Amino acid sequence: MKPKHPQVMGDDPQLNPGPKIRPAAPPDVPLICQMVRELADFEHLLDQVRLSAEDLQTHLFGAKPVVEAVVAECDGQVVAFALYFTNFSTFLGRPGLYLEDLYVRPAFRSRGVGLALMRHLGATAAQRGYGRFEWSVLDWNQDAIQFYERLGATVMQDWRICRITGETLRAFGESG
Fold first, then answer.
1. Which of 38, 75, 80, 133 would disulfide-bridge 104, Cβ 3.0–4.6 Å?
2. Into how many domains does the chain fold?
3. What is the separation of C-alpha 103 from the centre of its chain, rounded to a whole number of angstroms?
4. Catalytic option among 84, 98, 130, 148
5. CA gap 114, 103 in Å, rounded
6. What is the pTM of this model?
7. Is residue 122 one of the residues assigned to a domain?
């Protein structure tokens, strides 16, 4: 008998008790930085990573935090993270949760870790009364796109990300 909804790998709590999701803590910062580099390598963007542990420490736990993070543990070992922040929809008149990065180490994929992180973030957005839970996905990452669609997400075909960064951002900011 086919299930009513598409089965997401690792979604059976009897076969997989699931990871423990918890807020990131300062001792997690070096490992999160390492996983950011692993993610960037997977995305063929390693040359763009400038993140240092000090940067992440400041922006997660400093006087004015601008991001939040959770980690997933399996058997007491941190195996994944999700880093997110609050954005705002003028159309909805409500804040939203924007997922910047989610990464699961390869040995722990297809075990429900990504699903647990996404459900945790969705619950966080709902509990906070946010109007949206959004993220971006690379157009070539078909595995991720299919995973997100199985979760019920809509891949927005008619929207494109615009970005100004680095020297161009500095020059742009000085031109005003």
1. 80
2. 1
3. 7
4. 148
5. 8
6. 0.88
7. yes
